[in-house]
Amino acid sequence: MASAQEESDRPESDRPESDRPESDRSRAGIPVFGTLVPGTLVFDKPAPRRPYAARGLGDRFFRYQLTATGLAVLAIMAGVGLFLLLRAGQALRARGFAFLTTAEWQPDVHRFGIAAVLTGTVLIAAVAVTISVPLAIGTALFISDVAPRKLRRTLVTMVDLMAAVPSVVYGLWGLFFLQQHVIGLSRWLSEWFGWIPLFKVDGTQPGEPLASESVFTASTFVAGIVVALMVAPIQCSVMREVFSQAPAGEREGAYALGATRWGMIRAVVLPYGKGGIIGGTMLGLGRALGETIAVYLIISPVFTIQPHILQTGSNSVSSLIALHYGDASTFGMSALMAAGLALFLLTLAVNFTASSVAARSRSGAQSEA
Amino acid sequence: MTIVETVVEDTPVPIAEAAPAGPSSGASEPVLPADRPRRIGGVSRSGVLSLCGAAASGLCVTVLLFGQLAPFSGGLGFTVAAYLAFLAIYAVLIGLEEDGQAVRDRVMTVVLWTAATLLFSGLFMVVGFTAWRGREALPHGNFFTQDMQSSGPLDPLTHGGIAHAMLGTLTMIAIALAITVPLGLACAVYLNQIPGRFSRFVRTIVEAMTALPSIVAGLMVYATWILGLGMQKSGLAAGFAISVMMLPIVIRASDVVLRLVPGTLTEAAEALGAPRWRTVWHVVLPTARSGLATAVILGTARGIGETSPVLLTAGFTAALNADPTSGPMVSLPLAVFNFVKSPEPAMIARGFGAAAVLMALVLVLFVIARVIGGRGPGHQTKRQARRTARASRRDMERFDELHVPGLSLFERPELSHPTGTAPSVPATGEND
After folding, report:
1. Is A139 found in the same domain as A210?
2. How close A84 comes to chain B (CA, Å)?
3. Which of these, A156, A147, A143, lies nearest to B42 by C-alpha position?
4. pLDDT (average), residues B331-351
């Protein structure tokens, strides 16, 4: 009795237990109990009973241990940004704002910047997301609503498995297979849509089928297709997860009101899964921005801003690092670190956007619980 | 959803004839003679016929278009044009007997099938191509037992192999797991067990880091371990880089799994007076064991396949090196990357062989994850159930020895429950 009394006299604030969901639940339950037994001394104050054992030495140690782990993980994660910033400082101080606007990469004569590589990175990621998102949404809807019931589990496993295939395998496929077979598509696109600046290819004339094929290889477009195949399973897996959580009651309500299956998808599944679509797209975009090896194997690096996605030559931040880390001087390494920092900040921004969008939407809120 | 679909699947194929009520069905079910469930999915004869008809005529129209009418050419253009013609004709065919809603539904169903087929065939092509090209190197036994130290680019496939890369991959992933598993699982437990502003912050950071570009993880270790502390490039550094990359993935996946542990179980443990750490050790972690294993294995699959952190931190060697603390070390993806940069066909074949081995490794890990993770939290295998039952029986015997009179829970079952409602044995064993 005495210990319980002493317990309830303690102020709320020094009770580390108080923010646990379990004790929240019991706090919600106790006042009812107290009114049921009004005469009892212990239940006079509507405060939660704190488990006696929670104050034991073992538990305190356990708590410190876990908090230390959390701190360690946080330190590692913060260390990534911090050390990059420290190492990049030298290069950033030397170039200042011009680091963002210069397209060349000659750190040893102090003429370098990420304008070209950043443009290339964003273009490759944009091509990848443009191709992968319709495929991923279609496949996710297919798995969650259209596919024969017996097939669904297999398809889910296959998508998850594809998401785990190493990126170097995709790179091999792009380098040895896609490169040769995509030229026809590139040529067709440049012939019919060459008037759009994005699809323009220098060095070919419309209606000249025998022009050199080498202007179409190793382009942003090829790299984009490979990265698209790489990120589509990840996006599809996120979207399918959310689509399959769309409430069965609402689905059946839509059917009961006379909707066809597509009508139901448009009225229930897609609005419900909007957060998942955006979150999945952003997750894929983050992967696409950071992809190194597949892009490195395919593109032929150029250090000018190359807005023509079908034309040979492109670049990305990560392949720039992979290309130059070996032969870099100390200052060159600092410049590469600065490029890495820019990539890091870009993906971080994309990720934060994704998680905040997903958290605000209805589907995201429910998967959080 | 389920109700509607089961109803639909039970009906045979009665869509083409729209007669109000067949006399036979009316006789057997007099209550609802004209009520037929509306079809939502499934296959009907007219549907199949219009699909085939549309496909045939779409093909014909395209052949006509490409051969006779317009100056189009190219295999891909043909496919796209044929598909578009097929869609249009299919829409018209459906429109002959259904309303606009149904037309849209059917057309979109076909489009969704197409999207899934495209994606899966693309992915199959990627995996199949690598496995197919790997067939040249894989049958040679020396490919798995030798390293590349004494083999040059011009040597045939009967010389040299990827033993050094396989050993390197295993060493690096072992180092990464030794760091990731304790740290990652403890951090996931922390996020779940000690909520508060700080742990919410940690969770946000971890979630943002899940898509950390792998090359940035490599750069970080390069900046700290190699440039900062002046260490060599080694397998240990590569293991660190892979850990930095894997850690957020493992934490996030385990966090989700731990959240699924039923609150009733932890509350029961607390109600029995268990301290928090005992609750975690004996209730939360065993309950989530299969899910945690899946999380770790999926993180491992990602970590094994990454090239760029290893590229920056491990260096490159053609020789077998079993010591992760000194000297360069090579992993499978890095070996693939280096093999295929060579113009020699034998080297490229080795690259594809190594990639096939890597894929097989990922596949095996994935299958293991599926087998372990197939059960949800709280579901036990037969062996676990037997062990739990044994522990409970021991507890019962212990209680019997204590034999406190007046507490009916601890009485012998045949004494306190003569009518046969004896407490079943395995219900209490969660704590052992």
Report:
1. yes
2. 6
3. A147
4. 87
Q: What is the pLDDT of residues B210-254, one digit of tens each?
A: 878 888 888 888 888 888 888 888 888 899 999 999 999 899 888
A126: CB partners within 8 A, 6+ apart: A224
* A185 and A269 within one domain: yes
Q: Are residues A178 and A298 in the same domain?
A: yes
Is the pLDDT higher at B128 or at A199? B128
The domain boundary residue, chosen from A32, A55, A78:
A55
Model confidence at B139: pLDDT above 70: yes
Can you give the residue ranges of every domain in chain B? 43-133, 163-373
The nearest alpha carbon in chain A to B199 belongs to A70
Please list, in sequence order, all residues whose beta carbon lies within 8 angstroms of the beta carbon of residue A173, skipping any fewer than 6 positions away: A226, A229, B125, B126, B129, B130
**Is A315 domain-assigned?**
yes
Say whether pLDDT at B94 is over 80: yes
The C-alpha angle A281, A286, A292, rounded to 5 degrees, equals 130
Question: Which residue from A139, A255, A355 is facing B115, i.e. has the nearest CB?
Answer: A139
Closest CA to B7 of B48, B35, B27, B46: B35
Answer yes or no: is pLDDT of A249 > 50: yes
> What ipTM was predicted for this assembly?
0.75
A134 shares a domain with A38: no
Q: Does B190 touch chain A (CB under 8 A)?
A: yes
Examine the domain organization and report whether A138 and A50 are in the same domain: no
Mean pLDDT of A226-254: 88
C-alpha span between B103 and B111 (Å, rounded): 12
Distance from B154 to chain A by nearest Cα, in Å?
20
Cβ–Cβ contact A2 with B under 8 A: no
Residue A68 resides in a domain: no
**B163-373 placed in CATH 2.30.38.10:** no
Residue A26 shares a structural domain with residue A142: no
> Does the beta carbon of B274 lie under 8 angstroms from any beta carbon of chain A?
yes
Distance from CA of B415 to the nearest CA of A (A): 34
Structural domains counted in chain A:
2
pLDDT, average across residues A196-202:
75
B216, B285, B330: which to substitute to probe chain A, counting the most A Cβ within 10 Å?
B216
Q: Which residues of A touch B220 (CB under 8 A)?
A: 79-80, 83-84
Closest by CA to B151, choosing from B362, B337, B349, B304, is B349
Query: Quick count: other Cβ atoms within 10 Å of Cβ A144?
Result: 22
Domain presence at residue A122: yes
Note whether A235 and A323 are same-domain residues.
Answer: yes
State which residue of chain B sits closest to A261, comparing Cα positions: B40
CATH code (residue A173):
1.10.3720.10
The size of the A-B interface in CB pairs under 8 A is 307
- What Cα–Cα distance (Å) separates residue A49 from each residue in A8, A11, A35? 7, 13, 15
Touching check for A352 and chain B: CB below 8 Å? yes
Q: Which domain-ending residue is among A55, A71, A99?
A: A55
Give the mean model confidence (pLDDT) for residues B374-394.
Answer: 75
Selected for mutation to probe chain A from B38, B179, B189, B276 (highest A CB count within 10 Å) is B276
pLDDT attached to residue A303: 81
Q: CB count, 10 Å around CB of A304?
A: 13
Domain region containing A47: 2-55
Cβ of A22 under 8 Å from any chain B Cβ?
yes
pTM, to two decimals? 0.77
Structure tokens at B346: 């034998």
CB A239 within 8 A of CB A280: yes
Q: Which residues of A touch B224 (CB under 8 A)?
A: 79, 83
Question: Which 3 state secondary structure label does DSSP give A301?
Answer: strand
Cross-chain residue pair A236–B119, CB shorter than 8 Å: yes
Residues of A in contact with B186 (CB under 8 A): 65-66, 69
pLDDT at B275 over 50: yes
pLDDT at A81 over 80: yes
Instruction: Give yes or no for residue B377 having a pLDDT over 60.
Output: no
